[in-house]
Amino acid sequence: MKSFLAVAIIALASLTGCDNSNRTVRSSTSPAPSSTSGRTVEPDNTAVNQRDRDANAKTPIDQNENQTDVSTTAEIRKLVLATKDMSVDGRNVKIITADGKVTLRGPVASDDERKAIDKIARGVAGDGNVDNQIEITGKE
Hints:
By secondary structure, this protein is of the alpha+beta class. The chain has helices at residues 2-15, 46-52, 67-82, 88-91, 111-125, and strands at 34-36, 39-41, 94-98, 101-108, 130-136.
């Protein structure tokens, strides 16, 4: 039923001539552009994008879908979210599990957060199964 409704809405939108080409959509996770003397300056994440193009860099798309890897990621995420005083960035760190190997990526506010997340992941996946690539931004 839901798929029928979605198809009907799409068909209706195309028949009515909906044109969203002039719309600007901003992700809710990206920071708002800053303004300098009346000019809008978009954030520059070019370096992050280039880093993620590296063939060896794990991204969430690399998460395996077998039950063991999904359960490992879910358990680590649950424990990270249960950690008191964790920043929003810390709670949103990428946890990618493939073939029992966990990769941690993303920014956190402090070295203490980095160590706490690393300790949780090693407790769940084992010492030799964690690649900690978490970056410290210093923003709280």
